[in-house]
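We now fix the convention by which a protein and its fold are recorded. The integers have meaning only within a learned vocabulary of local backbone shapes. The record below shows the convention in full.
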Amino acid sequence: MNKEHTLIRALRMNAVFSGVSALLIFAAAGWLAAQLGLADATPVYVVAAILTAFAIQLSIIVRSGKIRFLEVAGIIGGDIAWVLASIVLVGLYYESITTTGLMLIDVVAIAVLTFAILQIRGLRAYRREA
């Protein structure tokens, strides 16, 4: 198995997870807003829309099979920013987020961090190969 395939597979997993997450968020926006202590679901819908665009971007990269270092680095940076934002969100709004909301934030942050690590490893291997 070549190293590019490893990176493409990590990007594909990220795309699928992001796309499925966006659909679930759209479907359960009101419930999620309540779990996160939000007065209305507008911010939840915004996150779902951004995740949809992100999943589409990842899918385009995966389908093309073309790896551009800066593009993938930006994706990794976005994943790391998601994890950091999750930590800040919990730190700032801990009191208003339900236990279920906290668990959801944690599970998603762990998944996104896993994608970032896999993509970093894949990108390093790809660069060594090139």
Remarks:
- The radius of gyration is 16 Å.
- The longest helix spans residues 99-129.
- Helices lie at 3-27, 29-35, 42-64, 69-93, 99-129.
